[in-house]
Design brief:
Layout: E1 9-10, E2 16-17, E3 23-24, E4 35-36, H1 41-66, H2 91-94, E5 95-97, E6 108-114, H3 126-130, E7 134-138, H4 147-150, E8 156-160, H5 164-168, H6 171-174, E9 182-186, H7 189-206, E10 211-215, H8 217-231, E11 240-241, H9 244-255, E12 256-262, H10 291-300, E13 306-307, H11 309-323, E14 325-328
Parallel strand pairs: 6-7, 6-12, 7-8, 8-9, 9-10, 11-13, 12-14
Antiparallel strand pairs: 1-2, 3-4, 5-10
Protein name: Alpha-N-acetylgalactosaminide alpha-2,6-sialyltransferase 6
GO cellular component, one term: Golgi membrane
Subcellular location: Golgi apparatus membrane
Length: about 325
């Protein structure tokens, strides 16, 4: 090849073929007909790369349009700065009274968080839990019938908007049984302030001894910002819902000098080999879903909104030394 001239090559059909990228006649029957020449190997590779590039760009655009990020991730994002000091968040400004002008000023030297896990069944921890200075429970986890294992004392009950009805429709279990309990309700600010707050207020008028607060809109944003700062993931873009455990752990750190958590499994628990035995997700729902199945499904799913339980536990593990948090039944490494 010299200059810009490309030589034609001999064809097995006895005529001269045009170079790649040109038109040619094909055989005796093809004389007078112009057909597209099949591309050379180099052209085939270029075309294939072009198609792959186009598909990749479409995939990126589709993923961006969905606003979803990949879960799970094997480790937490390395911090570019020191984590915020949860002790300095200021309890009073974060929790608004349902009735009156009271402020949340409670403080405990030693607290226990009683999870809803089936790991507590058969532990006979009730006496130790009731002996703690402050006891924190979640959502609609009952104590009646389970006192030997989970105790009965309830200083604080942290309740998600999705569990609000289940708690308030059983006042004899959750309101009257332990009248000193302080309720902290959390949920999307628009939903809480437009409808759910009115329901809580109506119940409060029937039980004047009930003390209840809702998480303020500003504090709700802080919880989201904290998740992003600790994990590097935007909660909404990654289609995540913060769990009641997330709110409860932060509130406990705010209110307590030391926190002991009963029944929460460590972040690597469900990945152990051989796999752990199957247990119901809640101790009070023996026919409910399996604990590890629930954790793994929520962690990995990209369709719909899900709790990232395992990711949250990784964060809790990183907080243990910072905020004097210990775990037992099972014990964390």
């Amino acid at each position: 090849m010299s200059g810009s001239t490309v030589s034609a090559r001999a064809s097995p059909y006895g005529h001269r073929e045009a170079p790649c990228g040109h038109w040619r006649c094909c055989g005796e029957q093809g004389r007078g007909q112009r057909l597209m020449l099949s591309p050379c190997p180099q052209s085939q590779r270029a075309a294939a790369l072009g198609v792959l590039f186009a598909l990749l760009m479409l995939l990126i655009i589709y993923s961006s349009g969905n606003g979803s990020e990949v879960f799970p991730y094997s480790r937490l994002r390395g911090r570019a700065r020191r984590p915020p000091d949860l002790k300095k968040w200021g309890v009073k400004s974060g929790y608004l009274p349902v009735c009156g002008n009271k402020t949340l000023t409670a403080h405990c030297h030693q607290c226990v968080i009683v999870t809803s896990s089936s790991h507590l069944l058969g532990t006979r921890l009730g006496t130790a839990i009731d002996g703690a200075e402050c006891t924190i429970r979640m959502n609609d986890a009952p104590t009646t019938g389970y006192e030997a294992d989970v105790g009965n004392k309830t200083s604080f009950r942290v309740v998600a908007h999705s569990s609000l009805y289940r708690v308030l429709k059983r006042p004899q279990e959750f309101v009257n049984k332990t009248p000193d309990t302080i309720f902290i309700f959390w949920g999307p600010p628009a939903k809480m302030q437009k409808s759910l707050l009115k329901i809580i207020q109506r119940v409060s008028t029937s039980f004047p001894n009930m003390t209840a607060y809702v998480v303020s809109p500003g504090r709700m944003k802080q919880f989201d910002d904290l998740f992003r700062g600790e994990t590097g993931k935007d909660r909404e873009k990654s289609r995540s819902w913060l769990s009641t455990g997330w709110f409860t752990m932060v509130i406990a750190v705010e209110l307590c000098d030391a926190v002991h958590v009963y029944g929460m499994v460590p972040p690597n628990y469900c990945g152990r080999r051989p796999p752990p035995r199957r247990l119901p997700y809640h101790y009070y729902e023996p026919k409910g879903p399996d604990e590890c199945t629930t954790y793994i499904h929520n962690e990995r799913s990209r369709k719909g909104n899900h709790h990232r339980f395992i990711t949250e536990k990784r964060v809790f593990s990183s907080w243990a030394g910072l905020y004097n948090i210990t775990f037992s039944h099972p014990t964390w490494p």
